[in-house]
Structures are given as C-alpha cells and as structure tokens.
Design a protein that fits this description.
The protein has two domains: about 210 residues, Multidrug efflux transporter AcrB transmembrane fold; about 70 residues, Alpha-Beta Plaits (2-Layer Sandwich). It is built from ten helices and four strands, in the order αααβαββαβααααα. Strands 2-3-1-4 form a four-stranded antiparallel beta sheet. Strand 2 and strand 3 form a beta hairpin. Helix 6 runs antiparallel to helix 7, helix 6 packs parallel to helix 8 and helix 7 runs antiparallel to helix 10. It is elongated.
Length: about 290
C-alpha cells in the first residue's frame, strides 16, 4: 500500500521527468543522422571473407568525410552511408577498403527518405496505441467497475508516452554533448520500447483484474495496492536481468549498437518504473475523479 498511499509523489516525479525531457528536446533538439538528412549510399561486396564492421569503420575514418554509417548487407557486403561525397572521395573510400572489394552501387540518399521514415514511425505508433487500447478494452470487458475497461488501455498509452519521452530526452542531451546522431536504429529502439514497456503494465493490470474478480479486498485502492505488492518483485527481477544484458552490450558491444542498447536500457528502466509507480496510481486517480463528478 506504500505506493498508493504516496501516489501523488510518484505521479509528480513522472510528470517532472517528462517535463525535463520535453525541455531537453526543445533546447537541444535531436542531431539527425544520414538517414534523415540525406547523403550518399555506397554498397560494396568483398571477394573473400567479409571483415568486421569495426575494421571497415576504422579504415574509412581517417578520410575525414564526416559521420559514416556502416551496415552489413548480404553475406559478404556492406552498405556505407555518408554525407554527399564527390567522385574523388568515393574513389578514396574504395581504396581505403582494400583490393578484395568491389563496388555494387553508388547512389544519393534524399532527405525524403528520412521524412518517409518519420511518417511511417508515427503511423506505427498510432496503430500500436490503438491496438493496445482495443486489446485491453476487450480483455478487461468483464471488469468495468469502478474503472471502465477502455480507461485501462488509455492509461497504458499514457505510460507508453512517458516511457518513450524520457529516453528520447536523455538521448537529446547525449546528442548535444557527444554528437551521437538519430538513425534507423534509434527509431527501432523507440518502437521496441513500445513493446517492452507495455508488457509490465499489462502484468500489473492483469493482477488487479484478477483481484477485483476474487473480491478479497474491501476498496479499489486496497486492491490496486495489494496487486502491486504481489507482482513488483517479479517485474523488477525480470527487467533487471534484461537491463544487465543491455548494459553489457553498451559497455562491451560494438560502437554501432551502443546507442540502441542505451535507449533500450533507459526504456526498460522507466517502463518498469511506470508500470509500478505510475500506471496503477493513475487508475486510482481516475476512480477518485469519477467519484467527484
């Protein structure tokens, strides 16, 4: 019952963190990468075994052509995204890659690709959000009192927005001070957080649903509080194991996936926090608000 008793404090903490994240995004913005700003795309294929990605990145780095994005392509190839480069710079890149590599294609990437990526990401978020609301509404249809089933879904979306905004705000600070850029992996990380963070919320809501059905507790507040006590240990333990694995990827993994792993780590942490300290207290707030109407 500790969490429900001090629900205002935890909701205010979440509101403050979201506010700081929004301020960070407004002040620092996001440093858009090649995928969003446009540039050049060079696709190459190695005759023999493909070298490690870090080897390719280190070979191109001394050329001083700015930020590069190297991604595996097929069994023996890489796609290399850079700023708009000249024909001479393209030849220098090919020379730096070695003699056992052939050029498959060289094309320009327009900023429209980034705009399309943003559009599809927004559509994905909207569709996922609607799907969550409909699914929770259907699953909780038999538990419509004292809080309507569709409001469970709406609260889940509020926590999802909370779980996305805070990591993005952290990323905007990193983007400003360390120069890291928003790329396709960043978008994938945000969409992955959607799936990861909602799972814990559903676990807590499901326990509340079961306790309402059984009717062991006298009030809705007590039902929510006891439900949290029954599941928070498992939620924290499960999330902690995932976070430990992600932190290992942050500190010991390849440079190309560090930001992806860092975003997921932040998403898992705040997703677990919101499912316990935000989503459930919001249910109580909604119930109390309905009573005053």
């Amino acid at each position: 019952m500790f969490i429900i008793k001090h629900k205002k404090i935890f909701v205010l903490i979440s509101a403050a963190l979201v506010g700081l994240a929004i301020v960070s995004m407004i002040v620092f913005g996001l440093n858009l990468g090649i995928d969003f700003k446009g540039g050049s795309l060079l696709e190459v294929e190695y005759t023999n075994a493909r070298p490690e990605q870090t080897v390719v990145e280190q070979a191109i780095k001394p050329l001083s052509i700015g930020e590069i994005l190297v991604q595996p392509e097929g069994d023996k190839g890489y796609s290399i995204k850079t700023r708009d480069i000249t024909e001479q710079e393209r030849l220098q890149v090919m020379q730096a890659l070695g003699t056992d590599v052939t050029e498959k294609s060289f094309t320009a990437i327009g900023p429209s690709v980034g705009a399309e990526l943003v559009r599809k990401s927004i559509i994905s978020f909207i569709l996922v959000s609607l799907g969550i609301i409909f699914w929770i509404t259907f699953s909780f249809r038999k538990v419509s009192k004292p809080v309507s089933s569709w409001k469970y879904g709406l609260i889940a979306i509020v926590t999802l927005i909370h779980d996305i905004l805070i990591p993005v705000g952290v990323f905007s600070i990193l983007s400003h001070f360390s120069g890291v850029e928003v790329d396709t992996l960043f978008v994938v990380a945000v969409l992955t957080i959607l799936g990861l963070s909602v799972s814990d919320t559903i676990v807590v809501f499901d326990r509340i649903r079961e306790n309402i059905r059984v009717g062991h507790f006298k009030t809705f507040e007590e039902t929510v509080g006891r439900s949290i006590e029954q599941v928070y240990t498992r939620s924290i333990a499960t999330s902690s194991t995932v976070i430990i694995a992600l932190l290992a990827l942050v500190f010991f993994g390849p440079a190309s996936t560090k930001i992806f792993a860092l975003m997921l780590t932040a998403g898992m942490f705040f997703g677990t926090y919101s499912s316990i300290f935000l989503a459930s207290p919001l249910l109580v707030f909604v119930k109390n608000w309905q009573k005053t109407k």
